[in-house]
Design a protein that fits this description.
Shape: globular
Largest sheet: 6 strands, parallel
Strand content: 15-25%
Strand order of the largest sheet: 3-2-1-4-5-6
Order of helices and strands: EHEHEHEHHEHEHEEEHHEHHHHEEEHHH
């Protein structure tokens, strides 16, 4: 008997990337029922129809159900994938453009833009999880809705489901390490928070490749959705690790702010054009495979990240994966209930973080602890509808800090997103 897989937010143009992963692993991860749920009927029908053609082309007899019913999608599911965007790209554009008026970085997952995306999304993701507790309590929830780390923190500390947060950034970084250094199966130490993470160790066959990796990866792995920039070898030495591209916003803040101010379009506006092009392309009844244009949306390698993770759980592979999980007692400088992004051993019981003996990098420890307290206050603000906790969170955020700027921007953005913030407008 096959698996029931539910995708929440299935109208996303990312979906063919995920379905390609289902197709590629059909022999070891047999999906007999695929429930595609979305509240946007127009997009769901277009994307869902392409999915049906992809599965047919692959010769898979998978039952596909396109629906706006969350309950029927979750009922009896074995795996649930979350890829929601509350407020759609229109809300993202506001997250990117309003902060610039207040001399703050506007970005969809970090800074005050990411903060508002979290405020909109946390209550929705918690609602999904609470329904899972009743309808599919044994299912694994693999979430790659952003901000993935904050959402994983909220899920793992406020619900009873088996949840993991996922990002395609780490798998891209690891792939580049392997390619640049000519390695086949390196053991890589990875630590941090989502979009605030670092490679801090690279070994293969008893040889330490980390010093060489620090030299070759000074520019960091450049993600599609981040304006091109580069961290110098000196910056990496100061950090003591190879950072994900998002660290550019923290380490090169003024440079990034100036770049964003000079752009004719925000990244969200670019994504609207790409999405419209993809939706037009998806309506071609002769298209039955994932188009190359999808890689420009920044979703490249999501299928590999998501489906290899699900495969590792289902087949109890005990593989190493970088995911967002509770720290437990893994790292003594973080609390047990802190959600971290780190290397884990993944099998049928979930993900177990791998300790890094002797980890003593005070820069990484410091920035992790600071941003973690920001994340916790953000979750409290979202669930309570608290202006005070929201402003406290923003004062802790390294990309905000200044109270006057935070306050002015916060109240303008709060009003702009009023429709999606019911806790703040009872």
């Amino acid at each position: 008997m096959g698996l029931k897989l539910a995708v929440i937010g299935a109208g996303s143009t990312y979906l063919p990337e995920l379905i390609q992963g289902v197709i590629d692993r059909a022999a070891v991860f047999p999906v007999s029922k695929l429930y595609l749920e979305d509240i946007d009927e127009y997009k769901l029908n277009i994307v869902g129809s392409l999915v049906e053609r992809m599965l047919k082309r692959a010769g898979l007899d998978t039952e596909v159900v396109k629906t706006d019913c969350l309950e029927s999608s979750l009922d009896g599911a074995d795996f649930v994938f979350g890829q929601i965007r509350v407020g759609k790209l229109a809300a993202r554009i506001l997250d990117e453009k309003i902060p610039l008026k207040h001399n703050l970085i506007g970005q969809e997952t970090v800074g005050i833009g990411g903060f508002f995306k979290a405020l909109r999304t946390i209550p929705v993701i918690i609602d999904i999880a609470q329904r899972m507790e009743k309808l599919c309590p044994d299912a694994f929830f693999i979430n790659f809705s952003n901000p993935s780390g904050i959402l994983a923190e909220a899920l793992l500390n406020n619900t009873k489901i088996k949840a993991m947060g996922l990002c395609n950034g780490p798998i891209g970084m690891i792939s580049r390490v392997k390619k640049d250094l000519g390695l086949t199966a390196p053991e890589i130490d990875f630590i941090g928070l989502n979009h605030l993470s670092f490679i801090v160790g690279v070994r293969e066959n008893g040889i330490d490749y980390f010093p060489k990796a620090m030299e070759t990866m000074a520019g960091t792995v450049q993600l599609q959705n981040i304006p091109k920039g580069e961290l110098s070898p000196e910056a990496l030495r100061a950090m003591g690790g190879i950072p994900i591209s998002y660290l550019q916003y923290y380490a090169l803040r003024e440079q990034k702010l100036a770049h964003l101010r000079g752009e004719k379009q925000s990244r969200g506006e670019v994504c609207v054009e790409i999405e419209n092009g993809l939706l037009e392309m998806y309506q071609d009844e002769n298209l039955n495979e994932k188009p190359a244009l999808l890689d420009k949306r920044g979703g490249h390698m999501y299928s590999e990240a998501a489906m290899t993770l699900a495969d590792a759980i289902y087949n109890d592979k005990k593989e190493r994966h970088v995911v967002n999980v509770l720290n437990g007692g893994t790292f003594d400088f973080m609390n047990a209930d802190d959600c971290i992004e780190t290397t884990c051993i993944v099998g049928k019981n979930g993900a177990v973080p791998v300790p890094i003996p002797g980890f003593a990098n005070n820069y990484i420890k410091g920035i992790m602890k600071t941003v973690k307290y920001y994340e916790k206050l953000t979750i409290e603000a979202a669930l309570e509808g608290s202006d005070s906790k929201a402003l406290a969170a923003l004062m802790l955020n390294p990309l905000v800090g200044d109270f006057d700027a935070a306050s002015a921007c916060y109240y303008e953005m709060k009003e702009a997103h009023k429709k999606y913030l019911p806790a703040f407008y009872p």
